[in-house]
């Protein structure tokens, strides 16, 4: 039995691979933002779209450890 690759399946795999690579490249170029206090949900959502954000889920002030 000889299997012939499905062109649609192959194109889909290629597109997924390309999108994954683009996403990884974009994530490496986005500035990281550390959000020290809770913000309104729409603001946190928008920031997550624009930046690589680190949220403070406890909403407590950070302490500097020396």
Automatic annotation (TrEMBL):
Q: Know the name of this protein? A: Uncharacterized protein
Q: Which organism is it from?
A: Iodidimonas nitroreducens
């Amino acid at each position: 039995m000889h299997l012939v690759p499905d062109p649609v399946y192959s194109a889909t795999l290629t597109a997924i691979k390309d999108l994954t690579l683009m996403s990884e490249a974009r994530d490496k170029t986005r500035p990281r933002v550390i959000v020290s206090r809770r913000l309104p949900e729409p603001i946190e959502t928008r920031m997550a779209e624009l930046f690589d954000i680190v949220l403070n889920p406890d909403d407590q002030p950070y302490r500097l450890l020396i």
